[in-house]
Amino acid sequence: MVSDSDRFWRSLSCPFGCSTCKSLQLCTSCLNGFYLASDNLCYSSCPPRFFGNNYTKTCQICPYDCLTCDNFKNCLSCDPTNDKRRLFNGTNRCLPLPGYYENYSQICLSCPSKCTMCLSSQICSSCIDGYFLSISSTCESICQARSIIVAGSKQMSCQKCPYDC
Questions:
Q1: What distance in Å separates the CA atoms of residue 150 and residue 6, rounded to the nearest whole number?
Q2: Where are the domains of the chain?
Q3: d(CA 42, CA 120)
Q4: Rounded CA gap, 120 and 103, in Å?
Q5: Which alpha helices (H) appear in the chain, and where do they start and end?
Q6: Model-wide pTM > 0.70
Q7: 8 A C-beta contact, residue 37 and residue 44
Q8: Per-residue model confidence as pLDDT tens digits over 121-135
Q9: Which pLDDT tens digit goes with each residue over 79-111?
Q10: How far apart (Å, rounded) are the C-alpha atoms in residues 144 and 136?
Q11: For residue 49, how many C-alpha atoms fall within 13 Å in the half-sphere facing its CB?
């Protein structure tokens, strides 16, 4: 004879990819080849910005700069369109595109308008053509008083004059 509780569990169908579940929207474990995501459903691959942890069989978040990553949290791809980042193979990290700076969040921020590279919204490291990198790390069309233009290998910059200048 079949009990009422046996009939209930036989009639409950877990969502696709789940091996066990508490409801039609709540998986508790996944079938082989599937990963439990934050929405409590199982998927054959994790969404962007997550990786499938083969040990825990869960989708875990990638570092903030990665679009996709591996189990060691190395970036495999970046999002140049939205995040303004590119993959640097030397470190397996996503770095800001020229004209953007690292702010330690998913989306890089724009450099000031006359900078081609910068460290923040206030500090430029190189300037567009026709501008000089000032002593205070801003891009200026002329050097400040008591400074001279110095030609670097890639950038013209302003430097303080000697003390007697």
A1: 84
A2: 1-61, 64-108, 111-160
A3: 41
A4: 8
A5: 4-11
A6: yes
A7: no
A8: 999 999 888 888 888
A9: 999 999 999 989 999 999 999 999 999 999 999
A10: 10
A11: 8
